[in-house]
Design a protein that fits this description.
Blueprint (H helix, E strand, L loop, with lengths): L19 H6 L1 H18 L3 H7 L12 H21 L4 H23 L3 H24 L3 H27 L1
Helix pairs in contact: 2-4, 2-5, 4-7, 5-6, 6-7
Length: 172
């Protein structure tokens, strides 16, 4: 029987109970990884507002002020999703995919904003979108459904960003 201080894996997975302190301390590396991606992305996009405003944009382009709050929310969800998958013992594949999508997330910003490589950024974001989808599928299959659901807003936003990136390639 599980107690309030234990976390048990779904049936068929190794049972590794975690005490509360270990469980909450486990959030730290996920939060640090996401914060690092956010900070590095911020460094690569110091001129993002000017770049974004200078581009011919499609009718569905959001105002530039929306990106900061939206990404803040998404990064929090991404960190919690990775941590929750770890807590649910979703396995190495789930955590590797979570890490891969985070690295791909980081790669897009310098391509688009620092280097103005909009077509390369489009190719990269398509790969990112696939990596996010694969991560969600693995989370669901490995018993970390909550993690999968936490990643859905991110998948939707990156899908929207992919359409925006594609329109910018066409218009510019």
């Amino acid at each position: 029987m599980a107690t309030a201080t234990q976390d048990h894996a779904p049936a068929g997975r190794p049972d590794r109970p975690l005490d509360k302190a270990t469980t909450w301390l486990g959030l730290v590396p996920f939060a640090v990884a996401v914060a690092a991606v956010s900070a590095l992305g911020g460094l690569a996009s110091t001129s993002s507002r000017a770049t974004y405003k200078s581009l011919d944009q499609p009718w569905f382009a959001p105002p530039s002020w929306l990106f900061g709050p939206m990404w803040t929310i998404l990064y929090v969800l991404i960190a919690i999703a990775g941590w929750w998958a770890w807590r649910k013992h979703a396995g190495n594949l789930a955590l590797v995919l979570w890490s891969v999508q985070l690295a791909l997330n980081l790669a897009w910003t310098p391509l688009f904003f620092a280097e103005d490589l909009y077509t390369w950024a489009l190719a990269e974001i398509v790969v990112l979108l696939a990596a996010i989808a694969a991560t969600i599928v693995v989370f669901f299959r490995r018993g970390a459904r909550g993690s999968g659901w936490l990643m859905v807003p991110y998948l939707l936003w990156v899908g929207y960003a992919t359409a925006l990136n594609a329109a910018i390639v066409v218009l510019n």
